[in-house]
Design goal:
Elements: E1 8-12, H1 17-29, E2 34-36, H2 47-59, E3 65-70, H3 74-80, E4 88-90, H4 94-102, E5 108-112, H5 118-130, H6 139-147
Parallel strand pairs: 1-2, 1-3, 3-5, 4-5
Helix pairs in contact: 1-5, 2-3, 4-5
Length: about 150
């Protein structure tokens, strides 16, 4: 099993495959261990299956962080956020990545393979990795998120 304090699990569908591969290379440049749970080609696939694989590993504590990619990032973030203990943030700018970490303690980064150019993705990723959770006034909001029950 990878060093869970540093390792990141990644997943994508066919539309996010190319960006996922780019992200893996960026992580490897920083010596961050990566577990790829699919997809492994651009052959048409259903994102919920693969995103759920990554999100479940964050949810159960096998990994502290994950990165998920689909065409827009929207579906990936929706699926990931269905898992307990996952706070997935769809980020399209480095500023969103920074705020998602500082204020929301996001532990899953979602991006859109069809909408995020590699250079912007690299900036988003670097910001997300390098930004710490501020805690403080944001702590109680994270606890509130954990208690929300949308079953009504």
């Amino acid at each position: 099993m990878p060093d869970q304090d540093n390792a990141i699990v990644v997943a994508a569908d066919h539309a996010g495959f190319e960006l996922k591969e780019f992200v893996k290379k960026e992580l490897e440049k920083q010596s961050i261990p990566v577990e790829d749970v699919g997809v492994f080609s651009e052959e048409k696939s259903d994102y919920p299956i693969y995103i759920a694989r990554a999100a479940s590993k964050v949810s159960n504590g096998t990994f502290r962080r994950g990165i998920v990619v689909c065409g827009s990032g929207i579906g990936a973030s929706i699926v990931a956020n269905r898992f307990k203990n996952v706070r997935a943030a769809l980020c399209v700018t480095p500023e969103m990545a920074r705020l998602s970490r500082q204020h929301n303690d996001s532990n899953v980064l979602a991006m859109g393979g069809r909408i995020t150019p590699p250079q912007i993705a690299a900036e988003i990723l670097a910001t997300w990795l390098d930004t710490a959770f501020e805690g403080g006034r944001h702590e109680h909001r994270i606890r509130q998120i954990e208690t929300v029950d949308g079953s009504q």
